[in-house]
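Hey, can you fold this one?
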Amino acid sequence: MENDTNKRVKELEDKVKELQEILDKVFKTERYIFEKTVQFSDGRNIQTGRTTGTKIGTATDQKVGFFNKTPVVQQGAISAPTGGAVIDAPARTAINSIITTLQTLGLTA
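Sure. Predicted structure:
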C-alpha cells in the first residue's frame, strides 16, 4: 500500500514539474508563437500602448492582408502626380493626401 502511495506521489510530482515547465515557457518569454488561428469574440478589441505604439509586421517583406485579401509584402511607393494644369491642383492635393496616409500607415512605401 505504501509503495502504491509513493508511486502516486511521484507521478503527481512529475506532472506538476511538467506543468511548471510549460507555464515557465508561456509566461517567461518575450513573445508568444501561435500555431493555430487566433480568434476574438465579437465585440472584443485589441488595445495597444499609447507611448511607443505597436507594429503589425516589423519588416517590409513580412506579409499582411486585410479584409480577406491574400497577404502581401509592403507595396512599393506611389509616385506623387506631377505636371498638369492649375485646375489639377485640388486633385493633386487629394492624391498626395492619400499617398501620405497610406505611407503613414505603412500600407505602401
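The chain has one domain: 2-104. Let me know if you want another pass with a different chain boundary.
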